[in-house]
Amino acid sequence: MKIAVSRTLMTAGVVFLFFVPAVGPITLGTMNDAQPSLFIREPGQSNVNIYSLLIITPAVFKEALQPLVVHKKSIGLSTRLVTLREVYHQMYWHGRDNAEKVKYFIKTAMEEWGVRYVLLVGGRSSQFQPTWYCPVRYVSMVDDWDAEYLSDLYFADIYDSSGNFSSWDSDNDGIYGEWYPGQTAQDINIDLTPDVAVGRLPCRSEEEVETMVRKIITYETTAFDQPWFATMLVAAGDTYPQTQNANWTGPEGEYYGNRAIENMSGFTATRLYTSDQTFTDKKDVIREFRAGWGFVYLVGHGSPKQWGNNALNGTAFVQGPNSNDMWRFRNKNKLPVCVVSGCHNSQFDVCLRRAFNASTRWKQEGIPECWSERILREPTGGSIAALGCTGLGYTKEDKISFKGGINELEGAFFHAYGQDHVTVLGDTWAAAITWYRQTYPVAWNSSGLGDSWIDVKVIQSWALLGDPSLQIGGYPE
Ligand SMILES: [Ca+2]
Ligand SMILES: [Ca+2]
Ligand SMILES: [Ca+2]
Questions:
Q1: 339: CA distance to ligand 2 center in Å?
Q2: Which of 55, 146, 348, 469 could disulfide-link 391, Cβ–Cβ 3.0 to 4.6 Å?
Q3: Each residue's pLDDT tens digit, 63-85
Q4: What is the pTM for the complete model shown?
Q5: How far, in Å, is the centroid of ligand 2 from the Cα of 391?
Q6: What is the CA(401)–ligand 1 centre distance, in A?
Q7: pLDDT per residue over 157-201, tens digit each?
Q8: Measured in angstroms, how far is the CA atom of residue 156 from the centroid of ligand 1?
Q9: Whose CA is closest to 451, among 382, 404, 414?
Q10: CA 389 / ligand 2 centre spacing (Å)
C-alpha cells in the first residue's frame, strides 16, 4: 500500500494524514467529503517554485478563467487555479470561517507551492443578501461613518512579525481588526505587512469574468512599447480649502499629482487641475481619458459613486466622472492602471438593497457596483486595474502629526514603480504598503481615531482591484 503523508498543513497542530490505497483515498478522522491533499510532495522533493500565481474562484467562474490560465502559462508564469470547494475541503480542520480558510489555504500554497501572487475572483453574489462569490474580510475599525469596511490586505498579511499565522483577531472573539473610537486596540500587533501580493476581480457573473480575462490578456500581449503606455493623466484640485483651516495652504491634490509625476520617470504627463481651470467639468476628464494612458491618477474626494475635487479655495466642487460615465471613456484597449484617491471609491460591497435605507442611500451605497468596479470591468475601455479606498480615505489633514495619509501611500506606489522599477502590479501595491507600514509605526495602545488608528485604516482599506500578477506595460512579443 502506498502511503503518502502530507506535511502538517497548518498551525493548529493537526497532522493531516492521507493514506492512499489502491481503492482510493481514505483519510484519518475526516468527513466523507474529504479529498486527497493538493499539497502532497514526494520525499526529498523540493517544490517551492511549483506555482507563482494562485487563482481562487468559485466553480461557476472556472471555465471563463481557463483562457487566463493558458495565457499566464504561455508567458512563463506557472499558474494554479483552485475552486473554493477545493479550498474548503483542503482546509477542513483550519479556519473559523470561510475567509480564514482561504487565508490558511494561501499560507499553505505559499509554503508548499511557492505562490507569490493570489488572484481572488468574485464579488457580491446578491444585491439583496450579504453573500459573496469569494469570501471577504470586514475589519471593525469603527468611526462615525464606517462601522466596518472590507480589507483584502487581510488575505496578503499571512504571517505576523514572529512568522506565525496572522489572524487579525488577537483576542480571538471572531471579530477582526477591532479598534474602537477612544479606546486602545482590542486586536493588537496586527502585522499589516503583505507576505504575498493579493488582488481581486470582484466579478458577479461569467460575463464580467470574460470581460476581465479578455482585458488582461489583451493588455499583457499588446501594451508593450506602445506610445500611449508611456503617458500619465492626473486630475486634481484643492482637496482642503484654506478658507476652512489656515494650515490647508495651496491645492493639495495638485501637489500630490505633481509628486507622482516627478516619480514617473520616462512618462509624459498631462495635468487637469482646477487651479488653472484645465479641470472645470467632468467632460474634461472624459475627453482626455479617451486617448488612452499608462496611468491615471485622480486625487480628490469620492464616494462609492462619485469622484471630484474643489476649485481653488473651495469656491466650488468640480465633479469628475462618476460610475455612470465609464462607458463614455471609449479608450478601448489603451487601459491605464487607475489610482483613484478619495473616500469609498472602492467600496465593493455596495448593493441595491442599501437604496432602501435612508442612511446608506445618502452615503450612495445603494448602487449595484462601486466606482472602481465599474471602471475595471467597463468592456469598451475603462482601466486594467483600480486602486482606491474601501472606506473613508484619511489624509494627513486628519492626523495630528500632519504627516502620512492615503496620498502618501499613493505616492509610494508611484515611487515603487517609477523609481524602484517594481513592475508587477501586486508587488507595486505591496511595496507601497510595506513602505507606509515601516514609515508610520503603529502604537496599538493609543486611542482609536488617533494617528496610529488612521495609519492602520489607510493601509487596510487600500484595495487592489485587478490582477496582482499583471506585468505593468505588458510583455515584449
Ligand atoms: Ca505579514
Ligand atoms: Ca477580535
Ligand atoms: Ca488647500
A1: 31
A2: 146
A3: 999 999 999 999 999 999 999 99
A4: 0.92
A5: 19
A6: 26
A7: 999 999 999 999 999 999 999 999 999 999 999 999 999 999 999
A8: 7
A9: 404
A10: 22
